Amino acid sequence: MTRFTKGHGTENDFVLVPDLDGTLELTPAQVQRIADRRAGIGGDGVIRVMPTALSTDEGVRALAPTAEWFMDYRNADGSLAQMCGNGTRVFAAYLMREGLASGPDFTIATRAGAKTVRVTDDGYAVDLGPWRLVDEAAARRDGFDAMVRPRHGKPVPALSLDLGNPHAVVMLPEEVGLDALDLTSAPEVHPEPANGVNVEFVHPLGPGHIAMRVHERGVGETRSCGTGAAAAALATRFWSGVEDDTPWLVDVPGGRLRVTPLPGQRVELAGPAELVADGDFPL
To answer: Which residues share a beta bridge with 266?
Structure first.
């Protein structure tokens, strides 16, 4: 039997599996079984909690001097992912509860580098690190660099951003409601990224305030996506032409997140994290 904790950040849910001696090797099939919402525990992803120094990834091990714990994140289909914005807060909440980390701030390791977490009044804020426009020349010339076609919809322009993982953000036409989108299958993206892409659909709600739905690669539609919320806010900020450090509110089906641009082309994500269950599961 393997111990687990279930948690979520704005209803983007994860199963955390402690591996404090670095001896547990999760196979894609085991991850799929854990994440299965009918035959398993259920979650958008699985996070193995392990010492950074014991990772088999040389790049991750190099982070050990500043980040004691590694967030080994897997998508629900068993594939490895660089990181997960909402997952970092749930991971932080677990470390705090278990006495493996203490506030007011600390650093965790991900495949996308070290991330600094700070405790806030309503949860946690995570410096997601550097971000970039994938094709800045096309973005500044045309306002977009890709085309996205949701199921039963027409192709619409999108802006590609890299936040350690890939995103394509679409500002929907006013006549197309977020609720009308069919995200039961992955939207078509052209040009098609080699390793897949998270696709965010956005509607403006007011100054510095947007609503979003997301289809995540390797998962499907989720109730929230942290790096997706950051990408959506940064893309909307880019389109607005006012690229300052004003915080943005992003409403997702699972709640609300706050995205703050930081100096040095970095971005912070803030929101709640809850641990809801503990138990044992047979692998």
So the answer is: 130, 262
The superfamily CATH assigns to domain 131-262 is Diaminopimelate Epimerase; Chain A, domain 1 (3.10.310.10)
CA–CA gap between residue 56 and residue 74 (Å, rounded) = 15
Active site residue 84: yes
Q: Is 139 a known active-site residue?
A: no
Residue 115 tokens read as 């991330």
- Residue 115 has what pLDDT? 97
Total-model pTM: 0.94
pLDDT band at 194 (very low <50, low <70, confident <90, very high): confident
The pLDDT score that the predictor gives to residue 281 is 96
Q: Which of 187, 132, 142 is nearest to 164 (CA)?
A: 132
Cβ atoms of 268 and 128 within 8 Å: the answer is yes
Read off the tokens for 169. Answer: 């953000």
- Give residue 175's pLDDT: 87
Selecting among 225, 229, 235, 259, the annotated active-site residue is 225
Sketch the domain layout of the chain as residue ranges.
Answer: 2-129+271-276, 131-262
- Given the candidates 3.40.50.720, 3.20.20.80, 3.10.310.10, 3.40.50.300, the CATH classification of the domain at 2-129+271-276 is 3.10.310.10
Catalytic residue among 16, 47, 84, 270: 84
**Nearest residue to 273 (alpha-carbon basis) of 120, 12, 89, 83:** 89
